Amino acid sequence: MKKVKDFLTRDLTSVMPDTPLKEVAEILSWRGISGIPVVTENNEVIAFISEKDIITSLFPEQVKIENPDVIRIGNLSEIVKKLTAVGEAVVRDYMNENIICAKEETPIADIAGIMLKKGIKRLPVLRDKKLVGVVDRANLTKALIEEGSFD
Amino acid sequence: MILTVTLNPAFDHLLWLKDMKPGRLNRASTTKRMPGGKGVNVACALAVLGEEVIATGLLGGQACRGYEESIRKAGVTTSFVYTDQEIRTDFYVVEEGKSSQTMLIEDGSPVSQRYLNNFLLNFDRLLSICEIVEIGGSLPSGVEPKFVKELIERAKAKKKKVILDLGEPILKELLDVSGLFIVKPDVREKKILFGRDLGDPDVRMAVAKDLRSKGAEMVILNYSKLNYLVVGDGEIYEGGIECEECGILIGVQDGMLAGFINGYLSEGNIEDAFKIGLASGLATERSKVNYPTSKTQVERLLSTSKIRKVG
Fold first, then answer.
1. Structural domain of residue B286, as residue ranges?
2. Co-location of B19 and B145 in the same domain
3. Which of A101, A114, B66, B92 is deepest in the core (most CB within 10 A)?
4. A12 interface with B at CB cutoff 8 Å
5. Domain boundary among B168, B203, B220
6. What is the pLDDT of residues B270-287, one digit of tens each?
7. DSSP state, B73?
8. What pLDDT, on a 0 to 100 scale, did the predictor assign at position B205?
9. pLDDT tens digit string along B236-281?
10. How confident is the model over B55-60, as a mean pLDDT?
Protein backbone atom coordinates (compact mmCIF):
# COMPACT_ATOMS: atom_id res chain seq x y z
CA MET A 1 0.00 0.00 0.00
CA LYS A 2 1.22 3.49 -0.87
CA LYS A 3 2.59 5.74 1.82
CA VAL A 4 2.47 9.51 2.04
CA LYS A 5 6.05 9.77 0.72
CA ASP A 6 4.85 8.19 -2.55
CA PHE A 7 2.36 10.91 -3.42
CA LEU A 8 2.90 14.06 -1.34
CA THR A 9 3.59 17.35 -3.08
CA ARG A 10 7.20 18.17 -2.24
CA ASP A 11 6.57 21.88 -1.87
CA LEU A 12 7.89 23.81 1.13
CA THR A 13 5.80 26.95 0.65
CA SER A 14 5.18 28.23 4.17
CA VAL A 15 4.89 31.38 6.22
CA MET A 16 6.08 32.46 9.66
CA PRO A 17 3.97 33.74 12.58
CA ASP A 18 4.92 37.35 11.88
CA THR A 19 4.13 37.23 8.15
CA PRO A 20 1.52 39.89 7.28
CA LEU A 21 -1.88 38.44 6.46
CA LYS A 22 -1.87 40.41 3.20
CA GLU A 23 1.04 38.26 2.05
CA VAL A 24 -0.79 35.08 3.02
CA ALA A 25 -3.76 36.16 0.90
CA GLU A 26 -1.37 36.82 -2.01
CA ILE A 27 0.32 33.42 -1.65
CA LEU A 28 -3.00 31.54 -1.42
CA SER A 29 -4.37 33.37 -4.43
CA TRP A 30 -1.29 33.07 -6.65
CA ARG A 31 -0.79 29.42 -5.80
CA GLY A 32 -4.47 28.48 -5.91
CA ILE A 33 -4.30 26.75 -2.53
CA SER A 34 -6.62 26.89 0.49
CA GLY A 35 -4.06 26.94 3.30
CA ILE A 36 -0.39 27.01 4.17
CA PRO A 37 1.83 25.66 6.98
CA VAL A 38 3.24 28.08 9.55
CA VAL A 39 6.85 27.31 10.44
CA THR A 40 9.62 28.50 12.76
CA GLU A 41 12.93 29.84 11.48
CA ASN A 42 14.17 26.23 11.59
CA ASN A 43 11.37 25.05 9.30
CA GLU A 44 9.52 23.28 12.13
CA VAL A 45 5.76 23.28 11.62
CA ILE A 46 3.88 24.94 14.49
CA ALA A 47 0.50 25.84 12.95
CA PHE A 48 -1.55 26.09 9.78
CA ILE A 49 -3.39 29.04 8.33
CA SER A 50 -6.20 28.67 5.84
CA GLU A 51 -8.65 30.97 4.09
CA LYS A 52 -11.32 29.38 6.31
CA ASP A 53 -9.41 30.34 9.50
CA ILE A 54 -9.27 33.95 8.36
CA ILE A 55 -12.91 34.18 7.26
CA THR A 56 -14.38 32.42 10.29
CA SER A 57 -12.26 34.58 12.63
CA LEU A 58 -13.51 37.71 10.90
CA PHE A 59 -17.16 36.79 10.92
CA PRO A 60 -17.70 34.23 13.72
CA GLU A 61 -21.29 35.27 14.43
CA GLN A 62 -22.32 35.24 10.79
CA VAL A 63 -20.81 31.90 9.87
CA LYS A 64 -23.23 29.01 9.90
CA ILE A 65 -21.40 26.09 11.47
CA GLU A 66 -22.94 23.60 9.06
CA ASN A 67 -21.77 25.61 6.06
CA PRO A 68 -18.78 27.86 6.81
CA ASP A 69 -18.39 28.71 3.14
CA VAL A 70 -21.52 30.90 3.25
CA ILE A 71 -21.29 34.23 5.05
CA ARG A 72 -24.19 36.59 5.64
CA ILE A 73 -23.13 40.22 5.56
CA GLY A 74 -24.42 42.30 8.49
CA ASN A 75 -23.46 45.82 9.58
CA LEU A 76 -21.28 47.36 6.84
CA SER A 77 -19.25 49.73 9.06
CA GLU A 78 -18.44 46.84 11.42
CA ILE A 79 -17.21 44.82 8.46
CA VAL A 80 -15.05 47.70 7.19
CA LYS A 81 -13.52 47.99 10.70
CA LYS A 82 -12.74 44.28 10.74
CA LEU A 83 -11.29 44.33 7.23
CA THR A 84 -9.03 47.26 8.19
CA ALA A 85 -7.83 45.27 11.19
CA VAL A 86 -7.16 42.20 9.09
CA GLY A 87 -5.12 44.33 6.70
CA GLU A 88 -2.74 45.06 9.56
CA ALA A 89 -2.84 41.60 11.10
CA VAL A 90 -0.14 38.94 10.98
CA VAL A 91 -0.35 35.17 10.72
CA ARG A 92 -0.05 34.73 14.51
CA ASP A 93 -3.44 36.44 14.96
CA TYR A 94 -5.34 33.92 12.85
CA MET A 95 -3.28 30.71 12.65
CA ASN A 96 -4.62 27.40 13.93
CA GLU A 97 -2.17 25.70 16.29
CA ASN A 98 -4.35 22.66 16.79
CA ILE A 99 -3.17 20.89 13.66
CA ILE A 100 -2.86 17.39 12.31
CA CYS A 101 0.29 16.49 10.39
CA ALA A 102 1.32 13.38 8.48
CA LYS A 103 4.65 11.62 8.35
CA GLU A 104 6.21 10.32 5.14
CA GLU A 105 5.68 6.74 6.32
CA THR A 106 1.94 7.20 7.07
CA PRO A 107 -0.11 4.74 4.94
CA ILE A 108 -2.47 6.22 2.36
CA ALA A 109 -5.54 4.65 4.01
CA ASP A 110 -4.77 6.30 7.36
CA ILE A 111 -4.30 9.72 5.83
CA ALA A 112 -7.47 9.39 3.72
CA GLY A 113 -9.45 8.44 6.84
CA ILE A 114 -8.12 11.43 8.83
CA MET A 115 -8.74 13.93 6.04
CA LEU A 116 -12.30 12.72 5.48
CA LYS A 117 -13.24 12.42 9.16
CA LYS A 118 -11.82 15.82 10.12
CA GLY A 119 -12.82 17.61 6.92
CA ILE A 120 -9.20 18.57 6.19
CA LYS A 121 -8.37 19.78 2.68
CA ARG A 122 -4.61 20.08 3.03
CA LEU A 123 -2.12 19.00 5.69
CA PRO A 124 1.64 19.30 6.24
CA VAL A 125 3.97 16.32 6.01
CA LEU A 126 6.88 16.25 8.46
CA ARG A 127 10.25 14.58 8.92
CA ASP A 128 11.73 15.16 12.40
CA LYS A 129 9.13 17.93 12.95
CA LYS A 130 10.34 19.75 9.81
CA LEU A 131 8.22 20.42 6.74
CA VAL A 132 8.94 18.17 3.74
CA GLY A 133 5.73 18.71 1.77
CA VAL A 134 1.95 18.71 1.83
CA VAL A 135 -0.87 16.32 1.07
CA ASP A 136 -4.10 17.70 -0.32
CA ARG A 137 -7.31 16.07 -1.41
CA ALA A 138 -6.37 16.32 -5.09
CA ASN A 139 -3.10 14.35 -4.84
CA LEU A 140 -4.72 11.98 -2.32
CA THR A 141 -7.52 11.23 -4.79
CA LYS A 142 -5.03 10.73 -7.61
CA ALA A 143 -2.97 8.36 -5.45
CA LEU A 144 -6.06 6.40 -4.39
CA ILE A 145 -7.13 5.93 -7.99
CA GLU A 146 -3.61 4.82 -8.94
CA GLU A 147 -3.58 2.44 -5.99
CA GLY A 148 -6.61 0.74 -7.50
CA SER A 149 -7.99 -0.49 -4.20
CA PHE A 150 -8.67 1.06 -0.85
CA ASP A 151 -9.53 -0.85 2.27
CA MET B 1 20.28 17.90 1.41
CA ILE B 2 21.38 20.27 -1.37
CA LEU B 3 19.75 23.64 -1.97
CA THR B 4 19.95 25.17 -5.45
CA VAL B 5 19.27 28.87 -5.96
CA THR B 6 17.99 30.21 -9.29
CA LEU B 7 17.17 33.90 -8.96
CA ASN B 8 16.35 34.38 -12.64
CA PRO B 9 14.69 31.16 -13.83
CA ALA B 10 13.20 30.81 -17.30
CA PHE B 11 11.22 28.51 -19.47
CA ASP B 12 13.42 26.97 -22.14
CA HIS B 13 11.40 27.07 -25.35
CA LEU B 14 12.83 24.99 -28.17
CA LEU B 15 11.77 25.59 -31.78
CA TRP B 16 12.78 23.12 -34.50
CA LEU B 17 13.02 24.63 -37.97
CA LYS B 18 14.29 23.33 -41.29
CA ASP B 19 16.17 26.51 -42.00
CA MET B 20 15.81 29.84 -40.20
CA LYS B 21 15.58 32.91 -42.39
CA PRO B 22 16.09 36.13 -40.42
CA GLY B 23 13.62 38.86 -41.36
CA ARG B 24 11.13 36.31 -42.82
CA LEU B 25 8.21 34.30 -41.45
CA ASN B 26 9.61 31.13 -39.87
CA ARG B 27 7.28 28.31 -38.83
CA ALA B 28 8.51 25.73 -36.33
CA SER B 29 7.69 22.11 -37.17
CA THR B 30 8.02 21.06 -33.52
CA THR B 31 8.25 22.96 -30.26
CA LYS B 32 9.02 22.04 -26.67
CA ARG B 33 8.74 24.11 -23.49
CA MET B 34 10.35 23.08 -20.23
CA PRO B 35 11.56 24.66 -16.98
CA GLY B 36 15.10 25.99 -17.21
CA GLY B 37 17.68 28.13 -15.46
CA LYS B 38 21.07 26.92 -14.30
CA GLY B 39 20.20 26.14 -10.68
CA VAL B 40 16.97 24.41 -11.64
CA ASN B 41 18.73 22.24 -14.23
CA VAL B 42 21.34 21.30 -11.63
CA ALA B 43 18.56 20.49 -9.13
CA CYS B 44 16.75 18.19 -11.58
CA ALA B 45 19.99 16.39 -12.50
CA LEU B 46 20.92 15.96 -8.82
CA ALA B 47 17.48 14.53 -8.05
CA VAL B 48 17.78 12.05 -10.92
CA LEU B 49 21.18 11.05 -9.56
CA GLY B 50 19.59 10.26 -6.20
CA GLU B 51 20.36 13.36 -4.14
CA GLU B 52 17.76 15.03 -1.95
CA VAL B 53 17.50 18.51 -3.39
CA ILE B 54 15.45 21.66 -2.87
CA ALA B 55 15.15 24.29 -5.61
CA THR B 56 14.51 27.87 -4.60
CA GLY B 57 14.44 31.17 -6.42
CA LEU B 58 12.03 33.80 -7.67
CA LEU B 59 9.07 32.90 -9.85
CA GLY B 60 6.08 34.81 -11.10
CA GLY B 61 3.09 34.81 -13.41
CA GLN B 62 0.40 32.37 -14.43
CA ALA B 63 2.79 29.70 -15.68
CA CYS B 64 4.87 29.33 -12.53
CA ARG B 65 2.65 26.70 -10.89
CA GLY B 66 3.21 24.45 -13.90
CA TYR B 67 6.92 25.28 -13.81
CA GLU B 68 7.22 24.05 -10.21
CA GLU B 69 5.09 20.97 -10.87
CA SER B 70 7.36 19.96 -13.76
CA ILE B 71 10.51 20.04 -11.66
CA ARG B 72 8.81 18.22 -8.78
CA LYS B 73 8.13 15.42 -11.27
CA ALA B 74 11.92 15.10 -11.64
CA GLY B 75 12.10 14.51 -7.88
CA VAL B 76 12.99 18.03 -6.75
CA THR B 77 11.42 19.65 -3.67
CA THR B 78 10.38 23.21 -4.50
CA SER B 79 10.39 26.33 -2.37
CA PHE B 80 10.15 29.33 -4.68
CA VAL B 81 9.08 32.82 -3.71
CA TYR B 82 6.45 34.21 -6.05
CA THR B 83 6.69 37.78 -7.34
CA ASP B 84 4.34 39.98 -9.35
CA GLN B 85 6.51 39.65 -12.47
CA GLU B 86 6.11 37.12 -15.26
CA ILE B 87 8.73 34.36 -15.59
CA ARG B 88 10.97 34.94 -18.61
CA THR B 89 11.37 32.64 -21.62
CA ASP B 90 14.60 31.71 -23.40
CA PHE B 91 14.16 30.60 -27.01
CA TYR B 92 16.43 28.06 -28.69
CA VAL B 93 16.14 27.69 -32.44
CA VAL B 94 17.32 24.28 -33.62
CA GLU B 95 17.90 24.04 -37.37
CA GLU B 96 18.03 20.68 -39.11
CA GLY B 97 21.56 19.43 -39.70
CA LYS B 98 23.28 22.38 -38.03
CA SER B 99 25.69 21.81 -35.19
CA SER B 100 24.80 24.96 -33.26
CA GLN B 101 21.58 26.50 -32.01
CA THR B 102 20.47 30.13 -32.05
CA MET B 103 19.58 31.41 -28.61
CA LEU B 104 17.31 34.35 -27.81
CA ILE B 105 17.61 35.16 -24.14
CA GLU B 106 15.29 37.44 -22.19
CA ASP B 107 16.58 39.55 -19.33
CA GLY B 108 14.68 39.05 -16.11
CA SER B 109 12.06 41.60 -15.02
CA PRO B 110 12.83 43.90 -12.09
CA VAL B 111 11.99 42.45 -8.69
CA SER B 112 10.85 44.76 -5.88
CA GLN B 113 12.71 44.79 -2.56
CA ARG B 114 9.69 43.30 -0.78
CA TYR B 115 10.07 40.02 -2.67
CA LEU B 116 13.84 39.99 -2.20
CA ASN B 117 13.26 40.34 1.56
CA ASN B 118 10.79 37.44 1.45
CA PHE B 119 13.35 35.43 -0.47
CA LEU B 120 16.00 36.06 2.23
CA LEU B 121 13.60 34.95 4.99
CA ASN B 122 12.79 31.78 3.06
CA PHE B 123 16.49 31.20 2.25
CA ASP B 124 17.37 31.37 5.96
CA ARG B 125 14.72 28.74 6.76
CA LEU B 126 15.99 26.48 4.00
CA LEU B 127 19.57 26.78 5.28
CA SER B 128 18.42 25.02 8.44
CA ILE B 129 17.67 21.85 6.47
CA CYS B 130 20.47 21.69 3.91
CA GLU B 131 24.24 21.13 3.94
CA ILE B 132 25.23 22.46 0.51
CA VAL B 133 24.06 25.58 -1.35
CA GLU B 134 24.50 25.88 -5.12
CA ILE B 135 23.89 29.33 -6.66
CA GLY B 136 23.65 29.45 -10.43
CA GLY B 137 22.65 31.62 -13.36
CA SER B 138 21.97 35.26 -14.02
CA LEU B 139 20.23 37.89 -11.92
CA PRO B 140 16.90 39.60 -12.54
CA SER B 141 17.08 43.19 -13.73
CA GLY B 142 18.08 45.50 -10.88
CA VAL B 143 19.36 42.79 -8.55
CA GLU B 144 23.01 43.47 -7.81
CA PRO B 145 25.81 40.90 -7.27
CA LYS B 146 25.96 42.05 -3.64
CA PHE B 147 22.66 40.19 -3.16
CA VAL B 148 24.46 36.96 -4.09
CA LYS B 149 27.24 37.95 -1.70
CA GLU B 150 24.64 38.29 1.03
CA LEU B 151 23.37 34.74 0.29
CA ILE B 152 26.93 33.38 0.43
CA GLU B 153 27.63 35.12 3.74
CA ARG B 154 24.40 33.78 5.26
CA ALA B 155 25.19 30.25 4.07
CA LYS B 156 28.77 30.42 5.34
CA ALA B 157 27.60 31.78 8.71
CA LYS B 158 25.60 28.57 9.08
CA LYS B 159 28.62 26.47 8.01
CA LYS B 160 27.14 25.40 4.67
CA LYS B 161 29.28 24.49 1.67
CA VAL B 162 28.77 26.93 -1.20
CA ILE B 163 28.99 26.19 -4.92
CA LEU B 164 28.93 29.01 -7.47
CA ASP B 165 28.02 28.63 -11.15
CA LEU B 166 27.90 32.27 -12.16
CA GLY B 167 28.84 34.53 -15.04
CA GLU B 168 31.79 36.91 -14.98
CA PRO B 169 29.82 40.10 -14.17
CA ILE B 170 28.62 38.54 -10.91
CA LEU B 171 31.72 36.49 -10.16
CA LYS B 172 34.12 39.43 -10.37
CA GLU B 173 32.20 41.10 -7.51
CA LEU B 174 32.70 37.99 -5.38
CA LEU B 175 36.44 37.49 -5.73
CA ASP B 176 37.07 38.59 -2.17
CA VAL B 177 34.78 35.84 -0.84
CA SER B 178 36.79 32.93 0.52
CA GLY B 179 35.89 29.49 1.80
CA LEU B 180 33.88 28.35 -1.23
CA PHE B 181 33.44 24.66 -2.02
CA ILE B 182 33.31 24.71 -5.84
CA VAL B 183 33.52 27.61 -8.30
CA LYS B 184 32.48 27.04 -11.90
CA PRO B 185 32.57 30.27 -13.91
CA ASP B 186 29.80 30.40 -16.52
CA VAL B 187 31.74 31.54 -19.59
CA ARG B 188 29.23 30.42 -22.29
CA GLU B 189 30.56 30.62 -25.83
CA LYS B 190 33.15 33.40 -25.51
CA LYS B 191 35.62 31.44 -23.31
CA ILE B 192 37.23 34.59 -22.02
CA LEU B 193 37.37 35.22 -18.29
CA PHE B 194 38.58 38.43 -16.64
CA GLY B 195 39.99 39.45 -20.04
CA ARG B 196 42.08 36.29 -20.34
CA ASP B 197 41.69 33.81 -23.21
CA LEU B 198 40.94 30.35 -21.84
CA GLY B 199 41.88 28.80 -25.19
CA ASP B 200 45.53 29.11 -24.15
CA PRO B 201 46.48 26.15 -21.89
CA ASP B 202 48.89 28.22 -19.77
CA VAL B 203 46.38 31.04 -19.33
CA ARG B 204 43.50 28.76 -18.29
CA MET B 205 45.74 26.95 -15.83
CA ALA B 206 46.75 30.31 -14.33
CA VAL B 207 43.10 31.51 -14.18
CA ALA B 208 41.95 28.31 -12.45
CA LYS B 209 44.81 28.47 -9.96
CA ASP B 210 44.07 32.16 -9.30
CA LEU B 211 40.44 31.38 -8.54
CA ARG B 212 41.50 28.56 -6.26
CA SER B 213 44.00 30.73 -4.44
CA LYS B 214 41.22 33.24 -3.75
CA GLY B 215 39.55 30.63 -1.58
CA ALA B 216 37.78 27.96 -3.65
CA GLU B 217 38.36 24.33 -2.70
CA MET B 218 37.78 23.23 -6.31
CA VAL B 219 37.53 25.12 -9.62
CA ILE B 220 35.84 23.79 -12.76
CA LEU B 221 36.77 25.80 -15.83
CA ASN B 222 34.98 25.28 -19.14
CA TYR B 223 37.62 26.37 -21.66
CA SER B 224 36.24 25.24 -25.04
CA LYS B 225 32.88 23.91 -26.24
CA LEU B 226 32.52 21.10 -23.67
CA ASN B 227 36.06 20.68 -22.36
CA TYR B 228 36.95 21.32 -18.75
CA LEU B 229 39.91 21.90 -16.51
CA VAL B 230 39.34 20.82 -12.91
CA VAL B 231 41.70 22.07 -10.22
CA GLY B 232 41.66 20.79 -6.65
CA ASP B 233 44.11 20.35 -3.81
CA GLY B 234 47.27 19.13 -5.58
CA GLU B 235 45.31 17.57 -8.44
CA ILE B 236 44.56 18.99 -11.88
CA TYR B 237 42.59 17.17 -14.57
CA GLU B 238 41.35 17.88 -18.07
CA GLY B 239 38.57 16.14 -19.94
CA GLY B 240 35.64 16.69 -22.24
CA ILE B 241 32.13 15.56 -23.13
CA GLU B 242 31.97 13.82 -26.49
CA CYS B 243 28.59 15.02 -27.73
CA GLU B 244 26.98 14.33 -31.10
CA GLU B 245 27.77 16.86 -33.80
CA CYS B 246 24.16 18.14 -33.92
CA GLY B 247 23.17 17.50 -30.34
CA ILE B 248 21.11 19.94 -28.28
CA LEU B 249 23.32 21.32 -25.56
CA ILE B 250 20.74 22.89 -23.22
CA GLY B 251 21.53 21.86 -19.66
CA VAL B 252 24.67 19.86 -20.59
CA GLN B 253 26.97 22.12 -18.54
CA ASP B 254 24.52 21.97 -15.63
CA GLY B 255 24.28 18.18 -15.93
CA MET B 256 28.08 18.06 -15.78
CA LEU B 257 28.18 20.15 -12.59
CA ALA B 258 25.42 18.06 -10.97
CA GLY B 259 27.29 14.86 -11.83
CA PHE B 260 30.51 16.29 -10.39
CA ILE B 261 28.76 17.24 -7.12
CA ASN B 262 27.03 13.85 -6.88
CA GLY B 263 30.30 12.06 -7.69
CA TYR B 264 32.32 14.03 -5.17
CA LEU B 265 29.75 13.43 -2.43
CA SER B 266 29.63 9.69 -3.13
CA GLU B 267 33.27 8.95 -4.06
CA GLY B 268 35.12 11.71 -2.18
CA ASN B 269 37.73 12.38 -4.87
CA ILE B 270 38.05 14.70 -7.85
CA GLU B 271 39.00 12.03 -10.39
CA ASP B 272 35.82 9.98 -10.00
CA ALA B 273 33.69 13.08 -9.53
CA PHE B 274 34.95 14.49 -12.84
CA LYS B 275 34.23 11.22 -14.68
CA ILE B 276 30.69 11.10 -13.28
CA GLY B 277 30.28 14.77 -14.19
CA LEU B 278 31.25 14.15 -17.82
CA ALA B 279 28.92 11.13 -18.02
CA SER B 280 26.08 13.16 -16.53
CA GLY B 281 26.70 15.96 -19.06
CA LEU B 282 26.63 13.48 -21.93
CA ALA B 283 23.47 11.85 -20.52
CA THR B 284 21.83 15.29 -20.51
CA GLU B 285 22.70 15.82 -24.17
CA ARG B 286 21.17 12.46 -25.03
CA SER B 287 17.98 12.99 -23.02
CA LYS B 288 14.85 14.77 -24.22
CA VAL B 289 14.99 17.22 -21.32
CA ASN B 290 17.67 19.48 -19.81
CA TYR B 291 18.89 16.92 -17.30
CA PRO B 292 19.80 13.19 -17.48
CA THR B 293 16.97 10.69 -17.88
CA SER B 294 18.16 8.32 -15.15
CA LYS B 295 21.06 7.40 -12.91
CA THR B 296 21.39 4.13 -14.85
CA GLN B 297 21.91 6.11 -18.06
CA VAL B 298 24.74 8.09 -16.39
CA GLU B 299 26.32 4.88 -15.06
CA ARG B 300 26.13 3.32 -18.52
CA LEU B 301 27.95 6.30 -20.04
CA LEU B 302 30.65 6.38 -17.38
CA SER B 303 33.02 4.32 -19.56
CA THR B 304 32.99 7.13 -22.16
CA SER B 305 34.45 9.64 -19.65
CA LYS B 306 38.07 10.18 -20.57
CA ILE B 307 40.14 12.45 -18.36
CA ARG B 308 43.86 13.03 -17.98
CA LYS B 309 45.91 14.28 -15.05
CA VAL B 310 47.76 17.43 -16.05
CA GLY B 311 49.19 18.50 -12.75
1. 225-311
2. yes
3. B92
4. yes
5. B220
6. 999 999 999 999 999 999
7. H
8. 93
9. 999 999 887 667 888 999 999 999 999 999 999 999 999 999 999 9
10. 96
CATH of the domain at A68: 3.10.580.10
Selection from B215, B218, B172, B216 nearest residue B195 by Cα:
B172
Chain B residues touching A41 at Cβ < 8 A: 124-125, 128
Burial class (CB in 10 A: 0-12, 13-18, 19+), B309: exposed
Chain A contacts of B72, Cβ < 8 Å? 9-11
DSSP string, A109-137: HHHHHHHHHHT-SEEEEEETTEEEEEEEH
B157: domain CATH number is: 3.40.1190.20
pLDDT (0 to 100) of residue A65: 47
Of A9, A26, A39, which is closest to B72 when you measure between CB atoms? A9
Residue B2 has pLDDT above 60, yes or no: yes
**Gap between the terminal Cα atoms of chain A:** 10
Alpha-carbon separation of residue A7 from A58, A138, B34, B79, B156 (angstroms): 34, 10, 22, 17, 34
Nearest one of B79, B64, B9, B131 to A14, comparing CA atoms: B79
